[in-house]
Amino acid sequence: MKSLLAHLSQYAYYHQDRRNVATHFIGIPMIVLAIAVLLSRPNFSFFDVSFTPALIVVVLSSLFYLSLHLVIGLAMSSLLILSLFIADYLAAQTTVIWLVSGLGLFIVGWIFQFIGHYFEGKKPAFLDDVVGLIIGPLFVFVEFLFVLGIKGEWQKQIEQFCDLKNQENEMTKGL
């Protein structure tokens, strides 16, 4: 299994333009919330315990994040639980409100993503590795830490990886 820094470095390679990163600060939280909203309405029971697909996605995502890093995983889990509470509220509304909020957040979030990748000039990371879909929210959280001046050593390691990858690509183009 890849380390946290390996995942972040690979994802960061597709996100070096500051405008792209900025659009991800808006788009990714919208998409995460949209998925939670859309998956919070279907309900099923197993041994008299009620579940939603959103709860299952949050639990599995949290386990993945926790396996990468305990403290970051706890922070990500807390944010996912917050999304779940908001999603549960919206899912309890009328069908129109539920669908419009879920689909609206999803569509607008992806518009932000694709605008960012237009600036970047690179395709989204998940097109090369589907794991990028779960790394995206983690990337945004860690980028926020960098903005706050936290985990600067991680930022340097990630930037070094991206510099090396860019150099490799330049050498490959020259061949």
TrEMBL record:
The keyword Transmembrane applies. Keywords: Membrane, Transmembrane, Transmembrane helix. It comes from the Bacteria. One of its GO terms (biological process) is sphingoid catabolic process. The chain crosses the membrane at residues 21-39, 51-84, 96-119, 131-150. Pfam families: Mpo1-like (PF06127). InterPro entries: Mpo1-like (IPR009305). GO terms for cellular component: membrane. PANTHER family: 2-HYDROXY-PALMITIC ACID DIOXYGENASE MPO1, DUF962 DOMAIN PROTEIN (AFU_ORTHOLOGUE AFUA_8G05310). This is Putative membrane protein YGL010W.
